[in-house]
Amino acid sequence: MDYDTRFAKRIFPARAKTIDSLAARDDNFRELCADFSIADELRRKWETSSAAERNERHAECLELVETLRNETEAALESASMIVIKLLPRR
User: Fold this and answer.
1) What is the pLDDT of residue 72?
2) What is the reported pTM?
3) How far apart are CA 71 and CA 36, in angstroms?
4) Distance CA 47, CA 27 (A)
């Protein structure tokens, strides 16, 4: 299946397989990837805008993109963790 993960995979190319795997099973991660992509689109829009509020909106978008990047990275780190369950001692 193809989810909107292209931007996340461009930012984290070494983790493309993990992104695909996580997106296939986690609705919240798919939404996070979509939000990340949309935020970057908005950032690019405001970067080239001639509107009076351009600088303020662009700065807000930069902050949002960075926040979503950190959240995406944290989700990928969590997905890459190996959980080891210890058996009780006998």
Assistant:
1) 97
2) 0.84
3) 9
4) 30
Nearest Cα to Cα of residue 42 among 64, 61, 67, 63: 61
- Residue 1's pLDDT is what? 46
Residue 60 to residue 73: CA distance in whole angstroms: 20
Task: Give the span between the Cα atoms of 52 and 74, in whole angstroms.
Answer: 35
Distance separating alpha carbons of residues 90 and 35, to the nearest angstrom = 49
What does each C-alpha distance from 53 to 32, 41, 58, 60 come to in angstroms? 26, 17, 8, 11
Q: Tokens at residue 70, please? A: 């950190």
Q: What is the pLDDT of residues 1-26, one digit of tens each?
A: 456 899 999 999 999 999 999 999 99
Taking 80 as the threshold, does the pLDDT of residue 69 lie above it? yes
CB 36 within 8 A of CB 65: yes
